[in-house]
Each structure stands twice: as C-alpha cells, then as structure tokens.
C-alpha cells in the first residue's frame, strides 16, 4: 500500500517499526526540540510560538500496526 508512495516500514534496532522513504509531513507531530535536535540541525524556530521545534514521526510495536 505505502510502497507506491515511496513509504516503507523498517524494524529499528529497538525492535519497534518506523517509516522510511518519502514520509508525508501530515504524519509528523511538531514537538519541542531537544539539544541533540538543535545540534544535529533538525530544529527550527516556530514563527507562531517562537519555540524551537522539530518533527517527530510515529513508531509502532508491530509492522501490522504501522501499515
């Protein structure tokens, strides 16, 4: 289903499943950035709130839950 969109699931080293590929931004949650997000260049300033934020994508316990 997702493969036609370039979206795939993988099993992470933690045992959870996550999306990889062309992940639609609609699946992301905007959260406050950690220090590692800022240092890693994954953060930006939200113009509406003035907070430093990043995107967080969901992870799942099973591949079936991800699909």
The 3D shape can be described as elongated
What's the total count of β strands? Answer: 6
Helix content: 10-25%
The biggest sheet, with number of strands, parallel, antiparallel or mixed sense and barrel status, is: 3 strands, antiparallel
Q: What fraction of residues sit in β-strands?
A: 25-35%
Mean pLDDT: 90
Short recap of the structure:
13% of the residues lie in helices and 34% in strands.
Describe the structure.
By secondary structure, this protein is mainly β. It has one domain. The protein is built from two helices and six strands. The longest helix has 5 residues, at 35-39. The mean pLDDT is 90.
Q: Any key phrases for this structure?
A:
34% strand; single chain; 67 residues; 2 helices; 13% helix; mainly beta
SSE blueprint:
Elements: E1 7-11, E2 17-21, E3 29-32, H1 35-39, E4 44-45, E5 52-56, E6 59-60, H2 63-66
């Amino acid at each position: 289903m997702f493969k036609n969109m370039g979206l795939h699931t993988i099993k992470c080293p933690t045992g959870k499943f996550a999306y990889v590929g062309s992940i639609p931004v609609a699946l992301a949650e905007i959260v406050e950035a950690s220090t590692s997000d800022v240092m890693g260049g994954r953060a930006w300033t939200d113009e509406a709130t003035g907070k430093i934020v990043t995107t967080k994508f969901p992870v799942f316990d099973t591949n079936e839950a991800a699909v």
